[in-house]
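Pilot study result, target chain (339 residues):
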Amino acid sequence: MGSADDGNSSYGRKAFKRSKSHFADRVTADGRDGWPVEAGRYRLVVSRACPWASRAVISRRLLGLEDALSMAIADPIQDDRSWRFTLDPDDRDPVLGIRYLSEAYDRRESDYPGGVSVPALVDVPSGKLVTNDYQQLTLDLATEWTALHRDGAPDLYPRALRDEIDTVMAEVYEDVNNGVYRAGFATGQEEYEEACAGVFRRLDLLTSRLARQRYLVGDTLTEADIRLFTTLVRFDAVYHGHFKCNRWKLAENEVLWAYVRDLYQTPGFGDTVDFDHVKRHYHQVHTGINPTGIVPLGPDLAGWLTPHHREELGGRPFGDGTPPGPPPPQERVPAQGRP
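Predicted structure:
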């Protein structure tokens, strides 16, 4: 997720089109793109506000890569140079020594298209951006970084289920992950209605699927669940009101509300979510949609911790593996961002 080409005020005032990741190098076990998997070499730059970046935060937690892959958290409020490190002392990332993520982009290439987006993987020794390919990054964390996974790490992209996982993820991406943005940034009534209808059509189909099984594919957590979760966890807080995806609230859908609470209460999911960052980013950055910058007080977060009863459907969250331990103290979500 990056800033619009001509500033935050353009959101909702020009046609929305998600740009492809311009930097698509891969960090692999064999280093075929020149970037071998190596503990301590790379830094993952994220925003807790951003659903695309949140996929990588969750994957890193579930796989136990915290010690091997350090993480920088950007301020949820961007300025005209996009993501910045104003949450850190002296407004600089303590590892990369930069004030703006764009500096790592500039070290890689000048005049790059597509803007500055997160998640971004940066090579610490050179300070250069390696990749901002959010679609591939988490798949590589699951399959290429296995030598650095924790004991008991789950298989988030099991080979036998990849075709089905890919199909489900493609449908979720088109209609839900990206669909809420096409609705929220629509510049005309017809464009909005088509996108919004597509969001809820897919959510209805997912409801039918998840009414009979605990997880999207198979009986364990996979990459597909991570990708759906990062949109659903933001749904009532920002997409329902701010993006006008308001046929119903997630909390009014018994199946999806139980499903997303089940995931939220699973170690590695909810402990990465900062509702304060989420709400402030969408409502204060998208001034073309919300010119006052007022951040809503609701919704009440207490419901996230209520019983979901999804375990009655069976399923083994981590398969033959184990849950991750608690997040490192420096990565704990502050109290104002949690229920």
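One observation from the pilot: Strands lie at 42-46, 70-73, 120-123, 128-131. A full batch analysis is planned for the follow-on phase.
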